[in-house]
Amino acid sequence: MIAEASLGSKLSIVLATARMRMLNVSRYKGQLFVEILIPIVFAAMPILLGRATGGAAAEANFLRNTGTANYPAFMLIGSSTFIIVTFAFWLVGYWIRFEQETGTLEAIYLTPTSRVWNAAGIALYSAIRSMISGSVAYLIGSLIFGVNPLQGQLLLALAFILVGLVPLFGMTLLFGALVMKVKEANSLVNLMQWTVSLLMGVFFPVAVFPPLMRLLALAFPPTWMVNGVRSALLGVGYFFGEWYLDLAVLWGFLLIAPLLGFWVFSGMERNIRRREGVGEY
Amino acid sequence: MDAEVRVERLSKTYYPKQRKGLFKSERREVQALREVSLEIRRGEIFGLLGPNGAGKTTLIKCLTTLLLPTSGDAWLHGYHIVEQENLVRAAVGCMLMGERGLYWKLTGRENLIFFGALYHLPPKDRRRRAEEILGLLHLQDLADRTVETYSSGQKMMLAFGKALVNDAPVLILDEPTNTLDVPSARELRAHVRELNASGKTVVYTTHIMAEAETLCERVAIIDHGQVIDLGTVDELKRSLQRDHVTHIEGIIPERASQAVAALPQVTKLATSVANGTTRLTVVSSDGRAALPRLIEALTAHGALIQNIAPEEITLEDVFVAKTGRSLTEDTRVR
To answer: Taking a contact as any Cβ pair under 8 Å apart, which residues of chain B between 211 and 230 contact chain A?
Structure first.
């Protein structure tokens, strides 16, 4: 039987792929626990450094540069958003690498399904997993460092994360295409982790960057995402003054990045099928 | 009869890197397929026979859209493999890479349901199809265990089941009995015959000649990326036009031996006697056709025949005659 590929069946593939990855990771329970600890440990270092070196003047300085004196919350939001961003980035790349190594990538390519729907399923899975990890980490971290986790506009912060995730998944297709080509994910992820955390300003506002760096950071959707979340929760100030203008910029990324990612990914797929095939790893 | 698969002058050239030390490498041209043309009829079991590296898997990967051909055309179930790739994928159930095509951390049932989704089956149909396949292959008892706990043979069976998920008109099976024990291999071949009897076209690659002989209606012999010969197993054997050898044992008087030697089809005759039994080795030019005359000549002259054993020509003989090499040789370009 040749079943017809309706939009419904394509969305069903998204859900089935996300479910498959959930089932898969549910068989590695330790991994789920450890990843909640990562943002807390990640944020602990600058927070403790701040406590060790900071005084009244330091807090005033921090307030002047960032818009808030609440540096533990600033760091925690940064690191929790970072875990969401970094998940979105490397899960598609790691997914391709994992499927390449286990041999299931060819099995997927034998089916009449565009890989974009699979990637969307991976994105959905990664969004759910990272949102849970990021939120739990933020809550636990807030308890540890005495931060009020319910301050500010929570729904608006959530909107910045959700809108920001879509262009991120578009960008991750670029990363996936790169992994498919170079057949390596770890070193790319390592490089990406530091670059992403630097550009998005995990522990500092991008205002402190030199002008060229600041321009580069502002061309990067996660920078708008983390600043939007901080502004919604801590009132540090939106780049364009109003929340809807910053959100509109993220919507702009949302329209462009997935198209660019799809175009590059499809081209890379075709190139690889013309050469050695997707099964080579 | 309609062609279910049509291949016209299909070529595939790779340029793999050849390492020349730590950092140096150079690209080298490898012609994996050279203008392959063939037709596979609807409803037949078609064998692709050849040693490792002959080009069988490359041909299959092109037919299943995993690889883009360098030149040439092919159609599967009427769909062009490059221009209508999703329709081709929907029309074929494929077992490639054996157990590596499965998710080892998922159960057998979860694997089948997931692949059902990728073939656009509605959720209810995915579960129903998974149950059907598990029942057909007698895998119900393993269905809720993760694949990593299966034996190699059970994994291969599940991989075969995965090829059935979309109930496609064409089945492509690449060395499906690798790692299977004898009873499991026999069971899998029985399933292939049943599926073929239900109307499916089967493309079956193997380097086990006995398997091809017993299963396939027609066979293409592939070597160095080219189709060397194609036909039914009998046609290929007949094409050899080789002298046939028949061993006859029994109480055979001298005059009966002489009568056999006098037959026009007999080109050579050797006689030996051991423990009161005579053994004739008869070389004839037209094989089985000469057999009734041999028996007639022997019995007419008082011979008591205890055993007749014609030496069969195998596909291995055909392959050796056509290529000058054994099927077990590895012909990969190094």
So the answer is: none
